[in-house]
Amino acid sequence: MFHGSMVAIVTPFTNGRVDKVALKKLIDFHLQNGTDALVPCGTTGEAATLSHEEHKKVLSFVKEYVGNKIPVICGAGSNNTEEALELTRHAKKIRAAGVLSVVPYYNKPTQEGIYRHYAYIANKVDIPIVLYNVPSRTGISIAPATVARLAKIPNIVAIKEASGSLEQVSLILNQCSITVLSGDDALTFPIMALGGKGAISVTANIVPDRVHSLTQAALEGNFERARKLHFELLLLNKAMFIETNPIPVKTALSLMRKVKAEFRLPLCKMKKENIEILKLILQKNNVM
After folding, report:
1. pTM above 0.90?
2. Which of the residues are catalytic?
């Protein structure tokens, strides 16, 4: 159901508020450059610092502006199952293509708790659900065996894998039939070589055409071209994580004059020395 280059789109701020004008321009940028789906209000969209009301409004705004041009997969995760359910219901209400639902963070649930969290939401709302495994953020990883259990639920259709482990990806693909999407730009090519179907990408914020080309080549089985694009994107992918995501990607977009480098605490502006490193890499890759 979901494949190709899906951007984990940033949320622009101006003077502490969501900048809808800048957000429209970003969406247009993606529509013009081959992005296959938009994923608002994920980690890169600073969902953790949005109020629930803001969160819903951003989801609604993106879906209304995009219409049916490309799928919108709404970030709808929480460490509180009822809050995740509320966001998932909102995504269903606005007719989103699906939701991205992160493994519950901070609580560190057992594998049984993770299973019950997702099963509860899936049984309450009939909408395609993409699991999101990112243990560096959540403190807990969803086990392949748990993914296999969840994959038996009809509307749990995919998993965004950001564990950094190709063994984890291999075990998931070996144990069940579920769409695997890369959640780590540096591993998109190897994950797709294993059988993944695309990426929910940070780097696509700044070079959507190139990330689309890589995923499309891999989907077509042209792994020679995909490998070439993988190495061309390597430094850019690394640069997006020289500080905590989304600080580098939002800074890059500000250098491209697309958004302001404005964050909400506890996130803050990038160190000056890292900005200089980022500038050099962007220039080398003809991004600015």
Report:
1. yes
2. 132, 160
